[in-house]
Structures are given as C-alpha cells and as structure tokens.
Design a protein that fits this description.
Strand content: under 5%
Protein name: ATP synthase subunit b
Low-confidence stretches: none
Organism: Jiella pelagia
Distance between the termini: 168 Å
Family: Belongs to the ATPase B chain family.
Order of helices and strands: HHH
Largest sheet: none
Membrane topology: Single-pass membrane protein
Number of helices: 3
Keywords: ATP synthesis, Cell membrane, CF(0), Coiled coil, Hydrogen ion transport, Ion transport, Membrane, Transmembrane, Transmembrane helix, Transport
Structural class: mainly alpha
Length: 159
Amino acid sequence: MDNTFWTFVGLILFFVLIVYLKAPGLVGKSLDDRATRIRKEIEEARELKEEAKQQLAEYQRRRREAEEEAKEIVAGAKREADALLKDAKRRNEEYVERRTAMAEAKIAQAENDAIAEVRASAVNVAVEASAKIIADRNAGGGNGIFIDNSIAEVRKRLN
C-alpha cells in the first residue's frame, strides 16, 4: 500500500461523496437556473429593444409633424406679413393722396386770396386815380357830391 493507493482511495471517496451529496444535480440545476435567467434577460432585452424602436418611430413621426406644423406656421406668418405690408402701403398711399389734395386746396385758396387782394388793391388804386383825375378836372364846380356818389358806386361794382 503505497501513496498511489491512498490517493486512488481518496479520489473514489471524493466521487462517492459528490454523488451522495448530489453535487452534479445541484451544479446542473444551478446551470439550468442560470440559463433560464439569461434567457429571460435576453427576452426582456428584446422587448425593450422593440419598445425603443417603437418609441423612436413615434418620436420621429412627432418630429415630422412638428416640422410640418412649423412650416405651416411660418407660411401663415409670411402671408399675414404680406397682407399687413400691402395694407400699410395702401394706407400710406391714401394718406399721401389726402395730404396732396389738402396742400393743393390750400395752394388754390392762397392763389384765390392773392388774386382777390391784387384785384382789390388795383380797384382801390384805379378808384383813387379816377377820383383825383375827376377832382382835378372839376375843381371849381358843384359836381362834388355827384362825383363822390359815382366813385362809391364804382367801388361797389369793382369789388
């Protein structure tokens, strides 16, 4: 009985002890449990991946919708700005036309006033000149009242 024999006996006792304690079953069960757990995790990962794909597709759809809505808003704002610009131009042109008409009316009134003033001044000068000429011609006579009446009547008619 040498050392090899006792090593062989120890090995056999070790195997018997392992079989007696059902270690291969425990190791197999542990490996099976671990494989089941890994399968579940893989399945969960697949489900999460599918859910992530769906969420990604949903977010992309929402982004496209938001971009389209933004384009519509910008187009509407441009249309509104163009309409406001046209309205402002129209109102500005109307304002300029009104102001031009008012200025022309004021100018015409000033011309009429100036013409009337010149006429009145010319009439006064003509009446005074006529009065002086007539007075010089009739310096000695009693026609003074008649002349004064005639001058007043000429003034009325000329003015």
